[in-house]
Amino acid sequence: MKTLQCGRFALDLSRPLVMGILNVTPDSFSDGGRFNRVDDALARAESMLAEGADILDIGGESTRPGAPFVSPEEEMARVMPVLEKLRGIGAPLSLDTRRAEVMREALRLGAVDLINDVSALEDEGALPLAAASRAAVCLMHKQGNPDTMQNRPEYADVVLEVADYLKRRLQLCLDAGIARERLLVDPGFGFGKTLEHNLTLLSRLDEVEQIAGAPLLVGLSRKSMLGAITGEDAPSERLGASVGAALESARRGAAVIRVHDVKATRQALQLWQALRDC
Q: Buried (b) or exposed (e) across 108-144, using 16+ Cβ within 10 A?
């Protein structure tokens, strides 16, 4: 049985896991401002667990294209009260941050089972912090920073370049003493990629996993690429496309699927798995 050693939990990867998104920010692209009060965040967390989320991913900084700068202090002020309240909820907690300073304080609290880092532990001090913890780590690829990453991104071969970057970051983690069973990789859909780049990555996900050498976390939920395909401008109107993207990700080997719409995604994956196993 393939497992992910995720802080206080050992997660079975024999089926795709659903990671529920909990943005405690005022400006995230889809649900910014809905859950940035602690009570609202807690209610949302409980709701997603009831709907079948396997992991909760808490983030205090929007990394959407063009997102404004948020100081580490502000990010911590947003996430720490929520992490503290959720610490005993009985489910793995993921911290979505790219800053070592935020990781340090959250790990000290003892409430972080997974570090989900869009910068793949490139921030100074992040790698040794992760290595010294029990937390799992997700290493994501991005080209550029949130304020510039969609300004004409270019690749010679997007799959090979993304996978090679992830392979190199993964090796640094292994060299630092992070066990392979604690590592995930994320191709970073929408983070410095055109629609064509995103579709190519999705169609060749299995190659990314094979080259990088770790299970895949995929986040396509409500993203602009789905709006470009469907013509739906409002992220909240992209449910069908998001569920379709989740199923295609699972079919192509994703181990963890990061979503806003937990219940619909979980039901679709249950049907997919039943057909696969019959």
A: eeebbbbbbbbbbbebeebbebbbebbbbbbbbbbbe
